[in-house]
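Appendix B, Record 12. Input sequence as logged:
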Amino acid sequence: MSNDTGQLMAAVKNAKAPDTDTRLELYRQMQACRMMEQRAYDLFMQNLIKGTSHLALGQEAVAAGFGVAMREDDYTFCTYRGHNHTLVRGVSMTGILGELMGRECGLLHGKGGSMHLMDIEKGAMGSYAIIGAHMPIAAGAAWSAQYRKSGQVAVCFFGDGTTNIGAFHEALNFAAIWDLPVVYVCENNLYMEYTPIGDVTAVENPGADRASAYGLEPVLVDGNDADTMYAVAVAALDKARSGGGPSLIEVQTYRHGGHSRADPGKYRPDEEVEAWKKRDPVITYRQRLLDEGVDAAAIDAIDAEQSARVDAAEETARNSGPPPLESAYKELWADGSSSWRR
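Logged structural output:
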Protein backbone atom coordinates (compact mmCIF):
# COMPACT_ATOMS: atom_id res chain seq x y z
CA MET A 1 0.00 0.00 0.00
CA SER A 2 1.27 3.46 -0.92
CA ASN A 3 2.08 5.78 2.00
CA ASP A 4 4.19 8.60 0.60
CA THR A 5 3.92 11.39 3.16
CA GLY A 6 4.17 14.89 1.75
CA GLN A 7 5.45 13.94 -1.71
CA LEU A 8 2.86 15.77 -3.77
CA MET A 9 2.58 18.84 -1.56
CA ALA A 10 6.36 19.17 -1.55
CA ALA A 11 6.41 18.91 -5.33
CA VAL A 12 3.80 21.66 -5.62
CA LYS A 13 5.63 23.90 -3.15
CA ASN A 14 8.97 23.45 -4.90
CA ALA A 15 7.68 23.52 -8.48
CA LYS A 16 9.17 26.10 -10.80
CA ALA A 17 6.80 28.33 -12.72
CA PRO A 18 5.87 26.76 -16.07
CA ASP A 19 7.59 28.16 -19.15
CA THR A 20 5.77 30.77 -21.21
CA ASP A 21 4.50 28.33 -23.83
CA THR A 22 2.96 26.13 -21.13
CA ARG A 23 1.39 29.11 -19.43
CA LEU A 24 -0.12 30.33 -22.66
CA GLU A 25 -1.53 26.86 -23.24
CA LEU A 26 -3.02 26.85 -19.74
CA TYR A 27 -4.65 30.19 -20.47
CA ARG A 28 -5.84 28.97 -23.89
CA GLN A 29 -7.51 25.95 -22.33
CA MET A 30 -9.16 28.00 -19.59
CA GLN A 31 -10.43 30.59 -22.04
CA ALA A 32 -11.76 27.87 -24.36
CA CYS A 33 -13.65 26.33 -21.45
CA ARG A 34 -14.97 29.69 -20.24
CA MET A 35 -16.19 30.83 -23.66
CA MET A 36 -17.73 27.49 -24.54
CA GLU A 37 -19.72 27.27 -21.31
CA GLN A 38 -20.79 30.90 -21.48
CA ARG A 39 -22.11 30.16 -24.95
CA ALA A 40 -23.81 27.03 -23.64
CA TYR A 41 -25.56 29.20 -21.06
CA ASP A 42 -26.72 31.61 -23.77
CA LEU A 43 -28.02 28.74 -25.89
CA PHE A 44 -29.86 27.30 -22.89
CA MET A 45 -31.56 30.65 -22.30
CA GLN A 46 -32.62 30.64 -25.96
CA ASN A 47 -34.21 27.21 -25.40
CA LEU A 48 -31.73 25.62 -27.81
CA ILE A 49 -30.37 23.36 -25.07
CA LYS A 50 -33.16 21.27 -23.61
CA GLY A 51 -33.49 19.77 -20.16
CA THR A 52 -30.76 21.18 -17.97
CA SER A 53 -27.00 21.59 -17.89
CA HIS A 54 -24.43 21.80 -15.13
CA LEU A 55 -21.78 24.41 -15.82
CA ALA A 56 -18.32 24.73 -14.29
CA LEU A 57 -17.90 28.47 -14.82
CA GLY A 58 -15.28 29.46 -12.24
CA GLN A 59 -13.64 26.02 -12.07
CA GLU A 60 -11.67 26.13 -15.34
CA ALA A 61 -8.19 25.99 -13.80
CA VAL A 62 -8.79 22.42 -12.58
CA ALA A 63 -9.59 21.08 -16.05
CA ALA A 64 -6.87 23.11 -17.74
CA GLY A 65 -4.11 22.10 -15.31
CA PHE A 66 -4.73 18.41 -15.83
CA GLY A 67 -5.57 18.75 -19.51
CA VAL A 68 -2.17 20.29 -20.26
CA ALA A 69 -0.28 17.84 -18.04
CA MET A 70 -1.90 14.58 -19.18
CA ARG A 71 -0.58 12.28 -21.87
CA GLU A 72 -2.70 11.77 -24.99
CA ASP A 73 -3.42 8.14 -24.10
CA ASP A 74 -4.36 8.80 -20.46
CA TYR A 75 -7.98 8.39 -19.36
CA THR A 76 -10.39 11.03 -18.05
CA PHE A 77 -13.53 10.20 -16.06
CA CYS A 78 -15.80 13.04 -15.00
CA THR A 79 -19.26 13.94 -13.72
CA TYR A 80 -22.24 15.63 -15.35
CA ARG A 81 -20.31 18.87 -14.72
CA GLY A 82 -17.75 17.61 -17.19
CA HIS A 83 -17.92 19.76 -20.32
CA ASN A 84 -14.53 21.32 -19.56
CA HIS A 85 -12.81 18.07 -18.62
CA THR A 86 -13.95 16.65 -21.94
CA LEU A 87 -12.91 19.68 -24.00
CA VAL A 88 -9.35 19.88 -22.65
CA ARG A 89 -8.65 16.35 -23.90
CA GLY A 90 -8.79 17.70 -27.44
CA VAL A 91 -12.41 16.77 -28.02
CA SER A 92 -14.27 18.72 -30.70
CA MET A 93 -16.00 21.84 -29.35
CA THR A 94 -18.55 21.43 -32.14
CA GLY A 95 -19.21 17.89 -30.95
CA ILE A 96 -19.75 19.09 -27.38
CA LEU A 97 -22.07 21.99 -28.23
CA GLY A 98 -23.85 19.82 -30.78
CA GLU A 99 -24.47 17.19 -28.13
CA LEU A 100 -25.77 19.76 -25.65
CA MET A 101 -28.14 21.01 -28.36
CA GLY A 102 -29.29 17.50 -29.28
CA ARG A 103 -27.95 17.70 -32.82
CA GLU A 104 -26.67 14.92 -35.04
CA CYS A 105 -23.20 16.52 -35.15
CA GLY A 106 -22.89 15.92 -31.41
CA LEU A 107 -20.40 13.51 -29.86
CA LEU A 108 -23.17 10.95 -29.38
CA HIS A 109 -25.21 12.15 -32.36
CA GLY A 110 -27.47 14.16 -30.09
CA LYS A 111 -28.74 11.21 -28.07
CA GLY A 112 -26.75 11.69 -24.87
CA GLY A 113 -27.02 15.36 -24.01
CA SER A 114 -25.16 17.47 -21.49
CA MET A 115 -24.58 14.78 -18.87
CA HIS A 116 -23.25 12.03 -21.15
CA LEU A 117 -20.26 13.31 -23.10
CA MET A 118 -17.71 10.79 -24.35
CA ASP A 119 -14.93 10.50 -26.92
CA ILE A 120 -12.98 7.28 -26.46
CA GLU A 121 -10.42 8.19 -29.12
CA LYS A 122 -9.42 11.22 -27.04
CA GLY A 123 -9.36 9.33 -23.74
CA ALA A 124 -12.54 11.06 -22.56
CA MET A 125 -14.14 7.99 -21.02
CA GLY A 126 -17.47 9.55 -20.20
CA SER A 127 -19.44 11.90 -18.00
CA TYR A 128 -21.43 10.11 -15.31
CA ALA A 129 -24.76 11.37 -14.00
CA ILE A 130 -24.87 8.89 -11.09
CA ILE A 131 -22.89 10.33 -8.18
CA GLY A 132 -19.70 8.35 -7.58
CA ALA A 133 -20.47 5.69 -10.20
CA HIS A 134 -17.36 6.45 -12.21
CA MET A 135 -14.88 6.10 -9.35
CA PRO A 136 -14.69 2.27 -9.39
CA ILE A 137 -14.75 2.35 -13.20
CA ALA A 138 -11.70 4.62 -13.18
CA ALA A 139 -10.00 2.12 -10.87
CA GLY A 140 -10.80 -0.60 -13.39
CA ALA A 141 -9.27 1.40 -16.23
CA ALA A 142 -6.17 1.97 -14.11
CA TRP A 143 -6.00 -1.75 -13.31
CA SER A 144 -6.10 -2.50 -17.04
CA ALA A 145 -3.25 -0.05 -17.66
CA GLN A 146 -1.26 -1.59 -14.80
CA TYR A 147 -1.82 -5.11 -16.15
CA ARG A 148 -0.85 -4.10 -19.69
CA LYS A 149 2.14 -2.07 -18.43
CA SER A 150 1.04 0.71 -20.78
CA GLY A 151 2.11 3.62 -18.58
CA GLN A 152 -1.35 5.14 -18.85
CA VAL A 153 -2.98 6.92 -15.91
CA ALA A 154 -6.69 7.27 -15.17
CA VAL A 155 -7.76 10.66 -13.77
CA CYS A 156 -11.16 10.79 -12.09
CA PHE A 157 -12.88 14.09 -11.22
CA PHE A 158 -15.76 14.30 -8.77
CA GLY A 159 -17.54 16.79 -6.53
CA ASP A 160 -17.34 17.23 -2.77
CA GLY A 161 -20.71 15.53 -2.26
CA THR A 162 -19.32 12.32 -3.75
CA THR A 163 -17.06 11.91 -0.72
CA ASN A 164 -20.12 10.81 1.29
CA ILE A 165 -21.01 8.08 -1.22
CA GLY A 166 -20.00 4.47 -0.66
CA ALA A 167 -18.37 4.14 -4.09
CA PHE A 168 -15.85 6.82 -3.08
CA HIS A 169 -14.53 4.68 -0.25
CA GLU A 170 -14.68 1.41 -2.16
CA ALA A 171 -12.75 2.83 -5.11
CA LEU A 172 -10.07 4.40 -2.92
CA ASN A 173 -9.60 1.19 -0.99
CA PHE A 174 -9.10 -0.88 -4.15
CA ALA A 175 -6.82 1.76 -5.67
CA ALA A 176 -4.65 1.80 -2.53
CA ILE A 177 -4.32 -1.93 -1.94
CA TRP A 178 -3.48 -2.57 -5.61
CA ASP A 179 -1.29 0.54 -6.06
CA LEU A 180 -3.27 1.51 -9.13
CA PRO A 181 -2.14 4.32 -11.47
CA VAL A 182 -5.18 6.48 -10.80
CA VAL A 183 -5.52 10.09 -9.65
CA TYR A 184 -8.74 11.04 -7.86
CA VAL A 185 -9.52 14.76 -7.92
CA CYS A 186 -12.19 16.14 -5.59
CA GLU A 187 -13.46 19.49 -6.88
CA ASN A 188 -14.70 21.02 -3.64
CA ASN A 189 -16.88 23.97 -4.64
CA LEU A 190 -18.40 24.07 -1.12
CA TYR A 191 -21.88 22.87 -2.11
CA MET A 192 -23.26 19.42 -2.78
CA GLU A 193 -26.10 20.58 -5.02
CA TYR A 194 -27.90 23.04 -2.68
CA THR A 195 -26.42 21.93 0.66
CA PRO A 196 -23.14 23.28 2.10
CA ILE A 197 -20.78 20.31 2.28
CA GLY A 198 -19.68 21.40 5.75
CA ASP A 199 -23.20 20.92 7.11
CA VAL A 200 -23.27 17.21 6.37
CA THR A 201 -19.65 16.08 6.64
CA ALA A 202 -17.74 15.17 9.79
CA VAL A 203 -14.41 16.58 8.59
CA GLU A 204 -13.50 20.05 7.35
CA ASN A 205 -11.86 18.91 4.12
CA PRO A 206 -13.99 16.07 2.70
CA GLY A 207 -11.30 14.66 0.44
CA ALA A 208 -7.95 15.55 1.99
CA ASP A 209 -8.96 14.72 5.57
CA ARG A 210 -9.96 11.18 4.56
CA ALA A 211 -6.86 10.35 2.52
CA SER A 212 -4.87 8.97 5.45
CA ALA A 213 -7.54 6.31 6.03
CA TYR A 214 -6.29 4.69 2.82
CA GLY A 215 -2.59 5.27 3.40
CA LEU A 216 -2.59 8.25 1.04
CA GLU A 217 -1.09 11.69 1.45
CA PRO A 218 -3.53 14.48 2.31
CA VAL A 219 -3.37 16.92 -0.59
CA LEU A 220 -5.27 20.23 -0.45
CA VAL A 221 -4.54 22.87 -3.10
CA ASP A 222 -5.92 26.07 -4.62
CA GLY A 223 -8.13 24.95 -7.50
CA ASN A 224 -8.39 28.49 -8.88
CA ASP A 225 -4.66 28.79 -9.58
CA ALA A 226 -3.70 27.28 -12.94
CA ASP A 227 0.01 27.09 -12.10
CA THR A 228 -0.76 25.19 -8.90
CA MET A 229 -3.13 22.86 -10.69
CA TYR A 230 -0.55 22.14 -13.37
CA ALA A 231 2.13 21.46 -10.75
CA VAL A 232 0.00 19.04 -8.73
CA ALA A 233 -1.18 17.32 -11.91
CA VAL A 234 2.37 16.77 -13.13
CA ALA A 235 3.44 15.43 -9.73
CA ALA A 236 0.48 13.05 -9.34
CA LEU A 237 0.71 11.77 -12.92
CA ASP A 238 4.46 11.16 -12.61
CA LYS A 239 3.91 9.33 -9.33
CA ALA A 240 1.23 7.08 -10.80
CA ARG A 241 3.15 6.45 -14.02
CA SER A 242 6.31 5.43 -12.14
CA GLY A 243 4.49 2.83 -10.05
CA GLY A 244 3.95 5.02 -6.99
CA GLY A 245 0.25 4.26 -6.79
CA PRO A 246 -2.86 6.42 -6.50
CA SER A 247 -3.38 9.96 -5.26
CA LEU A 248 -6.35 11.75 -3.77
CA ILE A 249 -6.27 15.50 -4.43
CA GLU A 250 -8.78 17.96 -3.03
CA VAL A 251 -8.94 21.26 -4.88
CA GLN A 252 -10.73 24.27 -3.44
CA THR A 253 -12.77 26.08 -6.06
CA TYR A 254 -16.18 27.65 -6.64
CA ARG A 255 -18.89 27.59 -9.29
CA HIS A 256 -20.08 31.04 -10.28
CA GLY A 257 -23.67 29.94 -10.84
CA GLY A 258 -26.11 27.54 -9.25
CA HIS A 259 -25.99 23.76 -9.30
CA SER A 260 -27.72 23.68 -12.67
CA ARG A 261 -29.38 26.15 -14.99
CA ALA A 262 -32.65 25.60 -13.09
CA ASP A 263 -30.98 26.79 -9.87
CA PRO A 264 -30.53 30.54 -9.21
CA GLY A 265 -28.17 29.73 -6.32
CA LYS A 266 -29.87 32.14 -3.89
CA TYR A 267 -28.92 29.95 -0.91
CA ARG A 268 -25.34 31.24 -1.17
CA PRO A 269 -24.44 34.49 0.65
CA ASP A 270 -23.87 37.36 -1.77
CA GLU A 271 -20.59 38.29 -0.11
CA GLU A 272 -19.32 34.73 -0.54
CA VAL A 273 -20.12 34.72 -4.24
CA GLU A 274 -18.49 38.11 -4.78
CA ALA A 275 -15.36 37.12 -2.85
CA TRP A 276 -14.88 34.03 -5.00
CA LYS A 277 -15.57 35.90 -8.24
CA LYS A 278 -12.68 38.21 -7.36
CA ARG A 279 -10.55 35.05 -7.56
CA ASP A 280 -11.88 34.20 -11.05
CA PRO A 281 -9.21 31.81 -12.42
CA VAL A 282 -9.34 33.13 -15.99
CA ILE A 283 -9.20 36.83 -15.13
CA THR A 284 -6.54 36.50 -12.43
CA TYR A 285 -4.33 34.27 -14.60
CA ARG A 286 -4.56 36.70 -17.51
CA GLN A 287 -3.41 39.49 -15.21
CA ARG A 288 -0.58 37.34 -13.85
CA LEU A 289 0.72 36.73 -17.35
CA LEU A 290 0.65 40.43 -18.09
CA ASP A 291 2.34 41.31 -14.79
CA GLU A 292 5.13 38.84 -15.54
CA GLY A 293 5.86 40.31 -18.93
CA VAL A 294 3.96 38.07 -21.34
CA ASP A 295 3.15 39.96 -24.54
CA ALA A 296 -0.41 41.32 -24.37
CA ALA A 297 -0.78 40.71 -28.10
CA ALA A 298 -0.24 36.97 -27.58
CA ILE A 299 -2.93 36.88 -24.91
CA ASP A 300 -5.34 38.93 -27.02
CA ALA A 301 -4.73 36.56 -29.92
CA ILE A 302 -5.79 33.62 -27.76
CA ASP A 303 -8.98 35.46 -26.78
CA ALA A 304 -9.82 36.16 -30.43
CA GLU A 305 -8.93 32.62 -31.47
CA GLN A 306 -11.22 31.02 -28.90
CA SER A 307 -14.05 33.45 -29.59
CA ALA A 308 -13.94 32.53 -33.28
CA ARG A 309 -13.76 28.85 -32.36
CA VAL A 310 -16.92 29.07 -30.27
CA ASP A 311 -18.74 31.00 -33.01
CA ALA A 312 -17.83 28.36 -35.58
CA ALA A 313 -18.88 25.51 -33.28
CA GLU A 314 -22.24 27.11 -32.57
CA GLU A 315 -22.85 27.80 -36.26
CA THR A 316 -22.17 24.20 -37.23
CA ALA A 317 -24.34 22.88 -34.41
CA ARG A 318 -27.22 25.20 -35.29
CA ASN A 319 -27.11 23.99 -38.89
CA SER A 320 -27.01 20.32 -37.92
CA GLY A 321 -30.33 18.55 -37.70
CA PRO A 322 -31.64 16.45 -34.82
CA PRO A 323 -30.82 12.74 -34.87
CA PRO A 324 -33.18 10.77 -37.16
CA LEU A 325 -35.87 8.76 -35.39
CA GLU A 326 -34.47 5.45 -36.60
CA SER A 327 -31.24 6.14 -34.69
CA ALA A 328 -33.10 5.69 -31.39
CA TYR A 329 -32.58 1.92 -31.62
CA LYS A 330 -28.96 2.04 -32.75
CA GLU A 331 -25.80 1.96 -30.65
CA LEU A 332 -27.64 0.46 -27.69
CA TRP A 333 -26.17 -3.06 -27.78
CA ALA A 334 -22.77 -4.46 -28.69
CA ASP A 335 -23.87 -5.51 -32.18
CA GLY A 336 -25.35 -2.08 -32.88
CA SER A 337 -29.03 -2.96 -32.82
CA SER A 338 -31.75 -4.68 -30.82
CA SER A 339 -32.41 -7.34 -33.47
CA TRP A 340 -30.68 -10.07 -31.49
CA ARG A 341 -33.26 -9.74 -28.71
CA ARG A 342 -36.09 -10.82 -30.97
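The domain at 7-201+219-312 is CATH 3.40.50.970 (Rossmann fold).
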